[in-house]
Amino acid sequence: MHEPQLVMYEEEFHKINSILERLVRESNSKSIFLVDRNGQLIAHTGDTEHIDSTALASLTAGNIAATGGLAKLLGENEFTVLFHEGERDNIHISLVHRKVILVLIFDERSSLGLVRLRVKKAGDELARIFDGLLQKAEQGVGAGADSPFAEITDDDIDNLFRD
Predict the structure, then answer these.
(1) What average pLDDT does the segment 65-82 reach?
(2) Quick one: which of 40, 46, 137, 151 could link to 31 by a disulfide (CB 3.0–4.6 Å)?
């Protein structure tokens, strides 16, 4: 079964940013990134200016894919939470709604327990948003009226690429 392509609407994008901003405060994290499974950055907050967000998004998606292979070797569907501990910084990675990856970078000012607690709550909220986006996408496929591309015709596309 083919899943419809998710389209991010402004209202949902603002809700997602609000959740991430609250999560960075409540978890005492340095920065947070929300990435799709293809490695595309959806949103970020916190101290992100010194991090190559494109590389982080891509490498995180690759990490999830590689870990999925390990999970299958062990008879699991996938591992939904990953944790990497460094000398200064730690990374907590979790799958949300099996569609997006939530990445928190934190240091000694926080703890893994606090991060896990706050991620659980925020993950549930984000999952509800992505459920709504999926419902909109499914309705848009059938009706076409809710799609942001519904008014574009084949003639419009042909005219765009004419000499």
Answers:
(1) 93
(2) 46
* DSSP per-residue letters across 90-117: EEEEEEETTTEEEEEEE-TTS-HHHHHH
Do 47 and 25 contact (CB within 8 A), yes or no? no
Report the alpha-carbon distance of residue 142 to residue 135 in Å, rounded. 11
Kindly give, in sequence order, each residue whose CB lies less than 8 Å from that of residue 8, ignoring residues fewer than 6 positions away: 42, 133
Mean pLDDT of 112-123: 94
* Homologous superfamily assigned to 17-147: Dynein light chain 2a, cytoplasmic (3.30.450.30)
Predicted local distance difference test score (pLDDT) of residue 142: 44
pTM: 0.81
Strand order in the sheet with 81-85: 41-46, 31-36, 100-106, 90-96, 81-85
Quickly count helices (H) and strands (E) in the chain. Answer: 4, 5
The mean predicted confidence, pLDDT, of the chain is 87
Sequence letter at residue 119: V
